[in-house]
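Look over this record before class:
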Amino acid sequence: MTREMIMINLFQFSAPTYYKWKKHDKRKIISLLEYAFSDEDLIEYLNKGKISKIEEIGNQDYLFDLAIKFYKFLRHITNYKVAKKVLELLENSFNENQNKISIENIAEKIYKYDDFYTSMKLAILNLIQKQEPLVLEYVSKNRVKLENEFTKRASKLIKKSDFMIPSIA
C-alpha cells in the first residue's frame, strides 16, 4: 500500500484532497504522520486500531511503575538483603521455568531458603501471590534495572533530606 493510499484510508477522503492538504495547504498533521510513523505503523493502525510499538512503550512504563511499587513494599516488609535475595530467587525461578512464572516453584525456593524467618517467608509469599504474573515476569527480566532505579530514587531522597535538615536549625 502506498503512502497516498494509507492517508486516503486513514482520513477517509479522496486523493485530490490528500494532495491539496499535503502540497498546497501544507497541513501539519500530514507532516507529523510522515515524521513520526512508518508506513507499516499506519497500516497496522488501519488494520488493528492500534500500533503495537506505541502500546509496548506505554505498557513498559506502567509495568515499571508496578515493579517499583512491588520492590518498595518488599523492602518495607523485609530489608535490603532479603529483598535483593527475593528478586534473585524470582529471576532464577523464571529462567529455570523456560521464561515462565511459577508461583509454586517460587514458594518452594522461598521456603527452602534458611536466611528468611518463617513469618517473613509467609509475608513474602503473600506479596508475590497478590502480584499479576506480568509484573513478576517484568521484575524477573529487569531485576538489575529495578534495583538500580530504586537506589537512584532513594539517593535523591537522601540528598533532599540532607539539604533540608540544615535549614531547620
